[in-house]
Design goal:
It is a single chain. This protein has 520 residues and is of the alpha/beta class. The chain is 53% helix and 9% strand. It is built from 24 helices and nine strands. It has helices at 36-49, 104-112, 133-137, 146-156, 165-171, 176-187, 194-204, 208-223, 245-259, 263-279, 282-298, 306-319, 324-331, 334-343, 362-367, 371-378, 381-391, 402-412, 415-418, 422-439, 446-454, 464-482, 489-500, 507-519, and strands spanning 4-6, 24-30, 52-59, 69-77, 98-101, 122-126, 159-163, 355-358, 395-398. The strands form two sheets. It has a seven-stranded mixed β-sheet with strand order 1-7-6-5-2-4-3, sandwiched between helices. Strands 8-9 form a two-stranded antiparallel sheet. The longest helix is centred in the last third of the chain and has 19 residues, at 464-482. Residues 6-14 and 229-233 have low confidence and may be disordered.
Length: 520
């Protein structure tokens, strides 16, 4: 575990900050499930057990991951018989001594709200991320930059203590509230010895051993700061393929074909091949390599195989589309249940209830029909309306029950039927049109061809998400082709794609298309 710290005043480990005299004001920002209430209770009990008067209040956020709860604690030395001090109920900007945040972006929000100031505030924060709803809603990469928050913290706070306290807590069988309490103790910002902090945990009576382990680990990290080093990324060995000898031999043949490709292409073609074979079968993997070979035949080696490299990634994504069969398959794989149990920390004595939410449209249902029959039904508004009434209500399936699990397991095992379905025919036709359009630009504008290949990134997901992505894809490609003769056509295609990824409604894309139309 590494720690990033900036210090405005030198202090020894566990030594109380001499600047914190009189009333000490401490605020905590945490969201649901991070134990902010538990941490607040420990601090309040700690103060009172050591001769301090203390008051704790909380102001709840709007909802989980859309607004953090602000916990506020004020404490001051108090002797028996003396009048009780009058404390504030809410933190005020510029008037917080210690700010504890249970996630990196909460540190940023604390800075924006003025709770962190360079002349006064010690900021203790976990560097891990729990993505906000606003970050998840962005079709592209909407994740806010932790580096920008850290840079702001180093300017805004008098002292910063930052480490991945969540990972540290999990490694010690506890939750982040325990490790943040340990960081608070190790930072030496409160006038209490380590033993007093540990006594507050023991007095809680629940999860004591795990909490004390996480506390001790975080205390050591905060008390002995080191500059955070760049992580060393070790290359993971390729997963060994096992199975019937005939199938393994066929896989080895396909993998050897990929190994013979130019290095820039092979780097993405091998994971692409794995994805396609996992989606369907080895014959489908051979089709993937045939499509990639068609792109390479039109590519220019002098350009570093940029077109083929992008095609290796996005052809695989296009061939491994999300249909009912794939969704059911993924939801019933053993490793998914193992992952959920690990993330939820399910123990042998616990019972896990797992509910899957499905909302297939009539289009998804018809997509499972044989291609010719499905096309006729899809063209009939009355049948589509009827299917919509039957299926467009959403379904909740308890996959911890035998009936629901068997239903999904059977659906997930229908890969052999997939090639006959309307959805497969539609996806294959769209894939062929996309490649034809992109490759048609190679001779006149190679860079535009590369950008058109990358536009496949816009299509992802299932049901309504897939429909919205495909609509944006069609608009971006059509607008790019209208200006294909311009020298900056590739740059405009990239801008259109980035605009399409900015918001779900497509407002940014609307503006970019209007700009294109103004000079097209």
């Amino acid at each position: 575990m590494s720690l990033h710290e900036t210090v405005g005043a030198e202090m020894g480990a566990g030594q109380a900050d001499p600047r914190l005299s009189g009333i000490i004001k401490l605020a905590i920002l945490a969201v649901g499930g991070q134990g902010g209430g538990v941490l607040t209770g420990w601090i309040e009990d700690l103060a009172r057990a050591n001769g301090y008067a203390a008051q704790a209040t909380s102001v709840a956020g709007v909802a989980q991951r859309t607004g953090a709860t602000v916990y506020y604690i004020e404490m001051a030395p108090h002797r028996a018989g003396e009048p009780m001090p009058i404390f504030s109920l809410m933190p005020a900007a510029g008037d917080v001594d210690v700010m504890v945040t249970a996630e990196m972006m909460e540190a940023g929000r604390a800075i924006i709200r003025g709770f962190v100031t360079p002349d006064r505030t010690v900021l203790i924060t976990s560097t891990h991320r729990a993505l906000a709803v606003s970050e998840k809603m962005v079709p592209g990469d909407g994740i806010a930059s932790s580096d920008e928050v850290m840079a702001a913290a180093e300017v805004a706070a008098r002292r910063v203590i930052a480490a991945d306290f969540d990972a540290l807590a999990v490694a010690n069988g506890s939750v982040i509230s325990a490790s943040l309490f340990g960081a608070l103790a190790g930072a030496g910002v409160l006038p209490f010895p380590r033993e007093a902090f540990e006594a507050a945990i023991r007095a809680g009576g629940k999860g004591i051993e795990g909490s004390l382990r996480a506390f001790a680990a975080a205390h050591d990290v905060a008390a002995n700061p080191v500059r955070e080093a760049a992580p060393v990324v070790e290359a993971r060995p390729a997963a060994r393929v096992t199975g019937p000898a005939r199938l393994v031999a066929e896989w080895d043949r396909l993998a050897a074909h990929v190994a013979a490709l130019p290095a820039p292409v092979a780097e993405l073609a091998l994971p692409g091949l794995r994805k396609v074979v996992d989606f369907q079968d080895l014959a489908y993997g051979a089709e993937y390599l045939d499509r990639l070979a068609g792109v390479m035949a039109r590519d220019d080696a002098a350009r570093g195989w940029a077109l083929s490299r992008e095609a290796a990634k996005y052809i695989a994504n296009a061939m491994a589309y999300d249909d009912i069969i794939r969704v059911a398959d993924l939801k019933t794989r053993a490793r998914r249940f193992d992952r959920i149990r690990k993330e939820m920390r399910v123990k042998e004595a616990n019972v896990l209830h797992l509910t899957e939410f499905f909302h297939p449209r009539a289009e998804e249902v018809v997509g499972m029909f044989p291609a010719r029959l499905g096309a006729r039904v899809e063209a009939d508004p009355k049948w589509m309306a009827r299917l919509g009434r039957w299926f467009d209500k959403g379904r909740r399936l308890r996959t911890d029950s035998l009936t629901a699990f068997v239903i999904l397991h059977v659906l997930g095992g229908m890969k052999g039927w997939r090639r006959r379905t309307l959805r497969h025919a539609q996806e294959q036709a769209h894939l062929a049109r996309w490649l034809e359009v992109a490759l048609g630009q190679v001779a006149g504008n190679y860079d535009l061809a590369v950008e058109l290949i990358r536009c496949r990134r816009l299509i992802k997901g299932y049901s309504d998400t897939h429909a919205r992505g495909q609509s944006k894809f069609d608009r971006v490609v059509a607008a790019s082709l209208r200006i294909a003769a311009r020298e900056d056509a590739a740059d405009w295609c990239r801008r259109l794609r980035e605009a399409a990824l900015k918001d779900e409604e497509g407002k940014a894309l609307d503006g970019a298309v209007r700009t294109i139309d103004s000079f097209a």
